[in-house]
Protein: Ras-related protein Rab-33B
Amino acid sequence: MESSLEFSSSLGSVSSLLTRCRTFKVLVIGDSGVGKTCLTHRLCAGEFPRRVEATIGVDFRDRALEIDGEKIKLQLWDTAGQERFRKSMVQHYYRNVHAVLFIYDVTCPASFSGLTAWIEECRQNSLGQEIPRFLIGNKSDLRDPTRTDHQVGQDRAMSFAKAHGMIFFETSAKNPLKKRGNGHRGDGALRYQQDDVEDIVTAVGATLKKRKTPSAANSPVYSGSFKVGKKKAEELWTCC
Ligand SMILES: Nc1nc2c(ncn2[C@@H]2O[C@H](COP(=O)(O)OP(=O)(O)OP(=O)(O)O)[C@@H](O)[C@H]2O)c(=O)[nH]1
Structure:
């Protein structure tokens, strides 16, 4: 017969298994310079990095959160925007992805036009339509209220998001709003949406929490980075 010690120890392992949180892989893609690294810093560490360099390969950052009593972890894959720094890594980016954040710069219409190429890359890597997609216009702090040229209008971005089944946000990694609200576009009559980064985290978390996968017991996590041209620069296994 099992001793009370053995019984409580096996209960302990069951409970530790149950309390391990589910980890979701969230891919962050978009043209070089749109602010993917700064935004993932903001989403995960709550700050704007003092100094950033072009991402080489991919960097990993985690964000733990609790949604309706369940602890989950988002693992953000901040991928290189420059083709030469992506190279052979691309297929690894798309493996077992649970959600994708498409980032563009609201002051750079070319980065918005470039989204079609990122959608095509998702298609080529067999990313299913069931994978939640989020469209995020970054650098809203640079919007010039006196002009509409050289900026991506929100109506255009919202239509694009709707056409591609994405949830739309506009924010600034540098100077995010503390509360969700509307920014004025100069004359007071026109307004644009500015989202708190925490609203983005919550929306991604809440969407993923409803999903059945991955199981709490077998969700391996990476931290650190993979660099193109080097062997695995750093590969660590972590747990909540
Ligand atoms: N004003 C402003 N500048 C930003 C914001 N986000 C990023 N930047 C600046 O934009 C530049 C590029 O930012 P990154 O985060 O390195 O861009 P990236 O998309 O990761 O670039 P790659 O690594 O080349 O793909 C840096 O100079 C940042 O300081 C923002 O919200 N507002």
